[in-house]
Amino acid sequence: MVKRPTPSELYGKVKNALQALYAGRRDFGTRKHWASDSDQLDLNSAADLWALLPVLLEEIKQARPENCYAGTQPPQRSYEADDTIRDEELWAFAWDSQHLGRRIYLKFVLTKNRRGEWHYFHMDCHPDVPK
Fold it and tell me: Does any domain span residue 1?
């Protein structure tokens, strides 16, 4: 049995997340982390976040997603109450961000809409804290 996620699956998730963000198909999966995350990253608005995320995802892509994956095998499922993302897989990455000058942790959910297009749901983004 193949261990999930595979390197190609991870690359695809990052690529699909970028595609969704560039197309404006994005939303918050939860806002419970937003206040502390925005403070820690010095973001003044959600617009700042949406502009930052493609930069960060491109960094993950360059560093190779399989080297940055910080989730479980298989990926954990969302436990949020929102039906849109409940039980969807969580994609978590941690890497040394050149743009932000520190190690960053990013978590998101991807779903497909009725037209088969990817939609990005933001969960969490903050400086990575070793456990």
Answer: no
